[in-house]
Amino acid sequence: MLADVSYLEPSHPPATQLRMQLERQRAAFLAHPMPGLDERLQALEALRHLLDLNQQALAAAVSEDFGNRSVDETLLAELMPSLHGIRYTRRRLRGWMKPSRRAVGMAFQPATARWCTSRSAWSASSCPGTTRCSSPSPHWSARWRPATG
Questions:
Q1: What value does the mean pLDDT take over residues 99-115?
Q2: Which of 24, 76, 104, 112 has a Cα at 20 to 30 A from 58?
Q3: Domain check: are 110 and 55 in the same one?
Q4: Per-residue model confidence (pLDDT) at position 145
Q5: Does the residue 117 lie in any domain?
Q6: In a domain? residue 12
Q7: Are 86 and 122 found together in one domain?
Q8: Mean pLDDT of 47-68
């Protein structure tokens, strides 16, 4: 069975608007791909604040979409989990961004590796003078320094 996707042609206004919105989001991400801890916490706080301010409007919109859904049900099933998820993330974000150790295969022993979430880069070392780092770019690259000593 083939689906009819003629309504998704670029000339259709909603598809064009969606494409433009996705392009704006991509440009914004590429302009600042790895926000720091403070920026992430501020964004989560802004999201929490918007959800708090617009609880009744969101519940009314969901009620209208679902044909008179209970406002209390929407608050309990939709908004409370979102607010709890934001609070959970805010409390643990600092620890999630800390570098963590990763296992290295036997063939590469006595190397060590760690994952730096905040920089989105791997760092591996087999001896004090050898380091490999991958950059967070579309073209993953590695840089090796010869061991000294």
A1: 86
A2: 24
A3: no
A4: 40
A5: yes
A6: no
A7: no
A8: 92
Residue 51: CB partners within 8 Å, gap ≥ 6? 58, 79, 82, 83, 86
Q: Is the domain of 78 the same as that of 45? A: yes
Minimal CA–CA distance to 50: which of 42, 40, 60, 39?
A: 42
Its domain, for residue 137, covers: 100-144
Is residue 92 left, alpha or beta, with left meaning phi > 0 and alpha meaning psi from -120 to 50? alpha
Whether residue 87 is found in the same domain as residue 106: no
Instruction: Check: CB of residue 142 under 8 Å from CB of residue 134.
Output: yes
Mean pLDDT value of segment 113-131: 55
Q: 37-53 and 55-65 are packed helices; what angle lies between their axes, rounded to 10 degrees?
A: 70
pLDDT for 143? 39
Q: How far is residue 71's CA from residue 62's CA, in Å, rounded to a whole number?
A: 8
pTM: 0.62
